[in-house]
Amino acid sequence: MNAIKDSVHDYISVDPVARALLDTPELQRLRHIKQLSTVRLVYPSANHTRFEHSLGVYHLASRALDHLGVDDDRAAHVRAAALLHDIGHGPYGHQTEEVIMRRTGEHHDEIGDLLASSAAGDVLRAHGLDPERVAELVRGEGDLGQLVSGELDVDRMDYLVRDAHHSGVPYGTIDHGRLVRALRLREGRLVLAEGNVQTAESMLLARSLMNGVVYRHHVSRIAGAMLDRASERLLDETDLSVRKFRRMADHDLLVELGREVPDFGRRIERRDLYKRAVWAGLWEVPAWVPDIGHDDVRAAERDVADAAGVDPDDVIVDVPSRPTLKESETHVVVDGTVRWLEEASELVGALRNTERAQWRLGVYAPDEHVEAVGDAAAAILDVDD
Q1: In 3D, which of 170, 196, 265, 197 has the Cα closest to residue 226?
Q2: Whether the predicted pLDDT of 328 surpasses 80
Q3: Does residue 94 fall inside a structural domain?
């Protein structure tokens, strides 16, 4: 086996299948997609890529499979799925996912078509692996698919530690070594063994802290919302296909935006971002606001722009989805019985409240229009002062 030096896991041993997959264009493209996209505009050292993250997920999946005692053909497919799980991402990762979803109806973990006609799929077939089985695992299907995409997946274990390391914050630190050792398969479900309620809580707490401090930082959210609008205009106003768009790397998109949508593209490139005109919590907005759809958001932006007397492109309404705590559905063994973490932990309720408290409606505008846009948005969206 070859070994690759990693900033988080030290040396990662790669088997012949992984070594061949790493040289494919599908995985090499991930060298040019930053893991934290616009978060790096807040934390300058957060420049790590989805390529190294994919290696980390492969490494943790391999260790978990060893502890689970899975060493057959299934293990080979899971390791391949772990390495390939992010090849479906578009440029800037999650920041362009909604644009792609609105046009294709496909999530980034739907990679079946990509594996059917790509060098990565050819490598899998050459090594006796079934690309469709790998795609199913990436979607989280089957008992071992939960290891790649589920409440206890190794994807989450790696990105929390890696994102904290490169951001320079301590909040994502988790004992991933214990987590992978504590994994068990019980009746088709991936669970944590007896005595690991606190182990599960630590991952939940780390995710909550990283959400508040890193992932949902207001500067990153503003840049992400600007990128979403710019990407939408790029696809609407040029002949660029969504198929080509989703295979771009970060720098490809930035160059294209600078040429075709320069008002947004150059602002993103230079970190000349819009400012917060409204920043309101769940308790400050009407109950319908968190459920507003894409078309209604765009209509609200036009209404706010009209009321404020500014160009429609000078108003961005950013409505996050309702806060959730997916990890609370983690299964843990307590007194010999498999239970949801939510049933076994009093901490989950507190973290649910934290997630709700961190939710914010954002309305953004150029600095010179912040006051006018803020007043108009507060009136139209019925935001409490």
Answers
A1: 265
A2: no
A3: yes
